[in-house]
């Protein structure tokens, strides 16, 4: 498990996709997510855009190691919409993503099986339209040291190709770095073993 420090997500919101079944229209959208607050805003935007629609069903997943998710049927029969949409997030192995399927009722009932198929297909089409990228799970550290130790610190950062996220280089220097999870322990030990240099793990 230690080496599994990557996850997949989508780069940007997808173009609208459309799936039709017996006059009902299902519009699928996928959005990258960074927090739960975004969900409400994105749903409100789609409700304005599709104010004449009947249902705005969705599913989302957030987090890399401790994942949280939710599936919402928005008035459709239980588990006929949100769950099939969430199934596609799992099938594409994604996180930090929201999928919304907007339905316009076409006058003919599809039955639960038809609904499951329609919501699953619209979600799948939306994700097939997405640019999926693999990212690393990173751990953030703060390194505190005196200016005279700058070279020692920078040498380790360079050797291990660590990312500096910000720095304050004064008499007392602080450098904030982002480290891939699988080498975080090693980097922590390297800096801890240097005299006069302090390394702190930062909470997300």
Automatic annotation (TrEMBL):
<protein>
    <submittedName>
        <fullName>IMPACT family protein</fullName>
    </submittedName>
</protein>
<feature type="domain" description="Impact N-terminal">
    <location>
        <begin position="22"/>
        <end position="127"/>
    </location>
</feature>
<dbReference type="InterPro" id="IPR023582">
    <property type="entry name" value="Impact"/>
</dbReference>
<comment type="similarity">
    <text>Belongs to the IMPACT family.</text>
</comment>
<dbReference type="InterPro" id="IPR036956">
    <property type="entry name" value="Impact_N_sf"/>
</dbReference>
<dbReference type="InterPro" id="IPR001498">
    <property type="entry name" value="Impact_N"/>
</dbReference>
<dbReference type="Pfam" id="PF01205">
    <property type="entry name" value="Impact_N"/>
</dbReference>
<dbReference type="InterPro" id="IPR020568">
    <property type="entry name" value="Ribosomal_Su5_D2-typ_SF"/>
</dbReference>
């Amino acid at each position: 498990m230690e080496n599994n420090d990557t996850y997949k997500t989508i780069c940007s919101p997808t173009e609208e996709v459309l799936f039709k079944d017996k006059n009902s229209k299902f519009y699928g959208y996928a959005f990258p997510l960074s927090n739960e607050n975004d969900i409400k805003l994105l749903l409100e935007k789609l409700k304005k855009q599709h104010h004449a629609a009947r249902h705005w069903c969705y599913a989302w997943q957030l987090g890399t190691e401790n994942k949280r998710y939710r599936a919402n049927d928005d008035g459709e029969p239980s588990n006929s919409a949100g769950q099939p949409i969430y199934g596609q997030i799992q099938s594409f192995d994604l996180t930090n993503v929201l999928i919304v399927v907007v339905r316009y009722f076409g006058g003919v009932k599809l039955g639960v099986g038809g609904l499951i198929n329609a919501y699953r297909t619209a979600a799948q089409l939306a994700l097939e339209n997405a640019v999926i990228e693999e990212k690393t799970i990173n751990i953030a550290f703060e390194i505190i040291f005196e200016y005279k130790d700058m070279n020692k610190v920078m040498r380790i950062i360079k050797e291990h190709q660590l990312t500096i996220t910000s720095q304050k280089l004064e008499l007392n220097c602080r450098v904030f770095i982002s480290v891939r999870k699988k080498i975080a322990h090693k980097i922590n030990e390297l800096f801890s073993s240097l005299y006069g240099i302090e390394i702190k793990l930062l909470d997300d």
